[in-house]
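Support request from a user on the community tier.

User writes: "When I paste my structure tokens into the form, the page sometimes reloads and wipes my input. The last time it worked, I copied everything first. Here is what I submitted, just in case something in the input itself triggers the reload:"
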């Protein structure tokens, strides 16, 4: 079964750029801004590309501030699933051809293990923390309480978030600090703390890029 037959949409409607955008959203398994798409894959979802993917019901694009964030719809996820069995598209080039060989390998792996696509591609939690930090910080390099961060990422189990925060803290530009004014801490602040080196840390700081 091809992508066109499963989604009810002729394959030739999608350009190489549109296909690539959908596959990046599948692999990252999270919302992405155009800036993130450009950093990850050298492409953006804007102009005619955004309108077509929105109109076809494959991508949902929401304006947050002055920038769009894009995410796969359920229909988009179905398209990506079907694309694992699709032939290499025309004019895909060498790298595109190799990508479709990789996609076929992913399909075989899922079939062998009896897993579904959503279990194979999971969000990069470190990136999600950084994205949430930027959304919550009042200024670049500002402090964000771990309580606010946990509330923003309330779908992530606490133990997984602790592990991701601990890994991020190994970077020289990432800091987990104890609140200097301990009297200002509420019970939720204390419960949200992460213990590192025997000391509870209450705030996250990611240095601004100079």
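"...and here is what came back when it finally went through:"
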């Amino acid at each position: 079964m091809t992508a066109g037959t499963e989604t009810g949409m002729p394959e030739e409607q999608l350009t190489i750029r549109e296909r690539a955008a959908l596959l990046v959203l599948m692999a990252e398994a999270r919302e992405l801004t155009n800036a993130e798409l450009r950093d990850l894959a050298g492409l953006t979802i804007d102009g005619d590309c955004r309108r077509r993917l929105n109109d076809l019901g494959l991508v949902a694009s929401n304006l947050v501030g002055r920038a769009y964030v894009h995410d796969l719809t359920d229909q988009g996820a179905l398209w990506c699933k079907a694309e694992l069995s699709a032939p290499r598209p025309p004019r895909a080039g060498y790298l595109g051809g190799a990508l479709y060989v990789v996609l076929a390998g992913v399909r075989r792996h899922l079939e062998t293990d009896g897993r579904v696509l959503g279990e194979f591609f999971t969000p990069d939690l470190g990136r999600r923390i950084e994205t949430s930090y930027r959304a919550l910080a009042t200024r670049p390099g500002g402090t964000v309480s771990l309580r606010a961060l946990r509330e923003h990422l309330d779908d992530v189990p606490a133990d997984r978030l602790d592990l991701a925060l601990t890994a991020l803290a190994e970077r020289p530009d990432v800091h987990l600090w104890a609140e200097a004014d301990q009297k200002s801490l509420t019970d939720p602040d204390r419960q949200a703390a992460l213990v590192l080196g025997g000391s509870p840390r209450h705030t996250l700081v990611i240095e601004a890029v100079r």
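Agent notes: The reload is a front-end session timeout and is unrelated to the input. The chain has two domains: 3-120, 125-206. Residues 1-5 have pLDDT under 50 and may be disordered. Escalated to web team.
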